[in-house]
Design goal:
alpha/beta; UDP-N-acetylmuramoyl-L-alanine:D-glutamate ligase; nine-stranded mixed beta sheet; 9 helices; globular; binds adenosine-5'-diphosphate; binds the ligand Cc1ncc(COP(=O)(O)OP(=O)(O)O)c(N)n1; PM/HMP-P_kinase-1; kinase; ATP-binding; nucleotide-binding; EC 2.7.1.49
Length: about 270
């Protein structure tokens, strides 16, 4: 008898250009050897140059996708990405409460690298008050952590304080990503675990414009590792190694912020599944 394949779910928006959102999530999960399903909550017309347009899915369609997935698959871990607006966040929260989809990683996507808003301003409070308390892991970048905590974050000390504030909002584990700190030679993310343990995961900053989808890739890799049964710290460390490899081994696609190389491999001891 064949063991059941580890199944994961992304709940996010699509990227027609293939670099971010559901597309980056599925490529990452596939590369990390788990099966990926998707509840598409928004569709974007997007490429490496920017987001040209987007449309959120109607509530009924979101509900039906959740029912289809939960009615057939055994999801071991899931993640959220772009959630567009208040109605979409509320629909996702309702369905996350309804079905057992395993540990939840929330990537609170707000603004794309090109500057386009992927979450309406009035939906930030809904994410903070309704979605965050459901999250096993929250993965904000610096501007997202600033919005969610209502504080300016410019220093490492401010990152650690913000992580504590985010935990107070009901999130179990937090990783604040430092990718936007472009003046630093290292790309350092701060992790605060449920146990109170905290640490930095750092890697050399790579000087490239090909960083479209870094946040999605990190959060979906961590989700895949959690689904495979890795503990939170190990899953985060593998996620960081994988995202570094996908940036370091760049591919040439498009004319703007190019996508990552999801084929990039990390060494066997980190893959160990
Ligand atoms: N130029 C870079 N070199 C190395 N790592 C990077 C670089 N840019 C981002 N990262 C890493 O990619 C991950 C995603 O970070 P970030 O870009 O801040 O998220 P987002 O895509 O959500 O804005 C983090 O682990 C961060 O440290
Ligand atoms: C549909 C969609 N979802 C998420 C993002 C943002 O992805 P992220 O990994 O934060 O990468 P950048 O936008 O910062 O390149 C997106 N662009 N589209």
């Amino acid at each position: 008898m064949i063991n059941q394949t580890v199944q994961t779910l992304t709940i996010a928006g699509t990227d027609s250009g293939g670099g971010a959102g559901v597309m980056a999530d599925i490529k990452t999960m596939q590369e990390r050897h788990v099966f990926a399903a998707a509840v598409v909550v928004a569709v974007t017309a997007q490429n490496t140059i920017g987001v040209q347009d987007f449309m959120a899915m109607p509530k009924k369609m979101i509900e039906e996708q959740f029912a289809s997935v939960a009615g057939d698959l055994k999801i071991r871990a899931c993640k959220t990405g772009m959630l567009a607006d208040v109605a979409t966040v509320e629909a996702v929260v309702e369905n996350l409460k309804k079905y057992d989809l395993g540990p939840l990683t929330v990537d609170p996507v707000m603004i794309a690298k090109g500057g386009a808003r992927l979450l309406s301003e009035d939906a930030i409070a809904t994410v903070r008050n309704e979605l965050l308390p459901l999250a096993d892991l929250l993965t904000p970048n610096l501007p997202e952590a600033e919005e969610l905590t209502g504080t300016k974050i410019e220093t490492k000390d401010q990152m650690t304080t913000a992580a504590k504030k985010l935990q107070e909002l009901g999130v179990k584990n937090v990783i604040i990503k430092g990718g936007h700190q472009t003046s630093s030679k290292e790309s350092s993310d701060f992790v605060l675990l449920e146990s109170g343990k905290s640490f930095w995961v750092s890697s050399p900053r790579i000087d490239t414009v090909r960083t479209h989808g870094t946040g999605d890739t990190l959060s979906s890799c961590i989700t895949a590792e959690i689904a495979k049964g890795k503990d939170m710290e190990t899953a985060i460390r593998i996620g960081k190694k994988y995202v570094q490899a996908t940036i370091a081994n760049g591919i040439e696609v498009g004319h703007g912020h190019g996508p990552l190389n999801h084929w990039a491999k990390i060494s066997d001891e980190e893959v160990e599944d």
